Amino acid sequence: MDSVANIILYFVVALCIAVFSVMTVTSRKILRAATYLLFVLIGTAVFYFQLGYQFLGAVQIAVYAGGIMVLFVFSILLTRRPDDKAPLLASHRRALGIGLSFSGLVLLLLALFFMPLVDGLSLSECIESGMSIDMATIGKAFVGTDRFQYLLPFEAISVLLLACIIGGVTVARKR
User: Fold this and answer.
1) H/E segment holding residue 144
2) Handedness of CA 156, 159, 165, 166 (dihedral sign)
3) Which residues pair with 29 in a beta bridge?
């Protein structure tokens, strides 16, 4: 079972990830926001190491925390001065962003508890039936190709993120 130290480490890292995520999107200095994002990516690698997935943790650090962050920093330094501050958002945009974030959180929680996870059963049905769900089962559900498994949406999100990065670099170069 999990030791108390593992549980404490989980909550400390989760809190750090949450704090640095908020700091990433609220920072007006873009280079500082990229640094906060680096801390979020390293925290995610800590989760992988804690779960015993050393290869995924190493890939997270090497590819995302290393390579992608270097790409972000270079593109920031090539397109604008690092000491520039981003303009403040107008109040209607802030309210819209908060509303969309809250809606996304509600949809994420609904999907977490009511979408099929194991053998067509949702997480809430598995909990009610007393079924034991381990990390291997969750991992197979997320990256499997059978019915009620989520490899295709996972890859679609990867392509979407790549398109967002390319779009961001394109917009930044036109400024």
Assistant:
1) none
2) negative
3) 85
3 state DSSP class of 85: strand
pLDDT tens readout for residues 88-140:
656 777 788 888 889 999 998 888 788 877 777 787 888 788 887 777 777 77
pTM of the model: 0.59
Whether residue 62 contacts residue 114, with contact meaning beta carbons closer than 8 Å, is answered with no
Triad 4, 5, 7: Cα angle to 5°:
65
Maximum distance among all Cα pairs of the chain, rounded to whole angstroms = 57
CA separation for the pair 11, 5 (Å, rounded): 10
CB contact at 8 A, 27 and 51 = no
∠ CA 49-108-50, nearest 5°, is 10
Listed residue (6, 32, 157) closest to 84, CA to CA: 32
